[in-house]
Amino acid sequence: MNWLLFGLAGVLTTVLDQSFMPVLRIGEHWPLLTPGVVVFAALWASRSSALWGAFLLGLLQDLSRPEVVEGARTIRVLGPDALGWLFGAVGVLAVRRVLLRRHPLAVGAATFWFLLLASVVWGGIWTIRGLLPGTVLPWTPGEAGEALASRAITAACAAAVAVPLAWMLSLLRPWWGFPGGAWTAGRRASP
C-alpha cells in the first residue's frame, strides 16, 4: 500500500470530518469520511498494512475529536478510537473475501460494520476507564446504551458517504499500490 497516499487521504478526510462534514448534520449526527478511507484500504491492502492504517487513523481520531464531558469540559483520551478502529479493521478483514470489493456499496456496508465494531470497543474502553475513581465518562450514568445508539446512527451516516468516497478513491487505483495486482486480476491483457 502506498503509505503516502493513505496518509494524505487520512489527514484530508480527518480535516474534512472536523470542518466541513458538520454542515451535513442531522440532529447530533454527521457523516464521517475517514472510516471510509480505512475500510477502502482494509478491503484491498495486506493484513498488516490494513491493521496499522486503521490503528494510526484511529489514533488521529482520538487526537482530533475530544470527548465532551461534564458540560463544556473536554478531554482527550488516546485509545478508544485507535483500538476500536483496529478491532473494526479485524472485522472487515474477516468478511472481505465475501464482499464484492470493487463495488462502492460493499465499502458502504463494510464501513457500517467497521464502525459498529469500533463502537463496541469504544464503549468498553470508556466503561473500564469509568471504573477508576475520579474519572468521567462521555455519557451520563445510565445512558451508555444511548451513547452506543448514537454512534450506530453516525455509522449509518458514514456508510452513506462511504459509497461516493469509495468511487472517488478507486479512481486513484493505479497509485494505491495494493499487493497482488488487485486491480488487474481477472482482466485480459491488451494485445
Briefly characterize the structure.
This protein is mainly α and 191 residues long. The protein is 63% helix and 3% strand. It has one domain (3-22, 29-178): Arp2/3 complex 21 kDa subunit ARPC3.
Write up what this structure looks like.
The structure is a single chain. With 191 residues, the chain is mainly alpha-helical. It is 63% helix and 3% strand. The chain contains seven helices and two strands; from the N terminus they run H-H-H-E-E-H-H-H-H. The protein has helices at residues 3-19, 34-44, 47-64, 80-95, 104-130, 144-170, 173-176, and strands at 67-69, 73-75. Strands 1-2 form a two-stranded antiparallel ribbon. The longest helix is centred in the middle third of the chain and has 27 residues, at 104-130. The protein is globular and about 50 Å long. The chain starts with a helix and ends in a 15-residue tail after the last helix. The model is unreliable at 182-191 (pLDDT under 50).
Overall residue-averaged pLDDT value:
88
Number of helices: 7
The SSE string, one letter per element, is: HHHEEHHHH
In CATH, the topology is named Arp2/3 complex 21 kDa subunit ARPC3
Percent in helix: 55-70%
How many beta-strand segments?
Answer: 2
| Strand fraction | under 5%
What sort of overall outline do the alpha carbons produce when their principal axes are compared? globular
Side by side, the strands of the main sheet go 1-2
Query: How many domains, in number, for the residues?
Result: 1
Q: Round the Cα radius of gyration to an integer and report it.
A: 17 Å
Tell me the name of the CATH class.
Answer: Mainly Alpha
> Could you say which structural class the secondary elements and strand pairing correspond to?
mainly alpha
Distance between the termini: 28 Å
- Most strands sheet: 2 strands, antiparallel
Residue stretches low in confidence (pLDDT < 50, at least 5 long) are: 182-191
| CATH architecture annotation name | Orthogonal Bundle
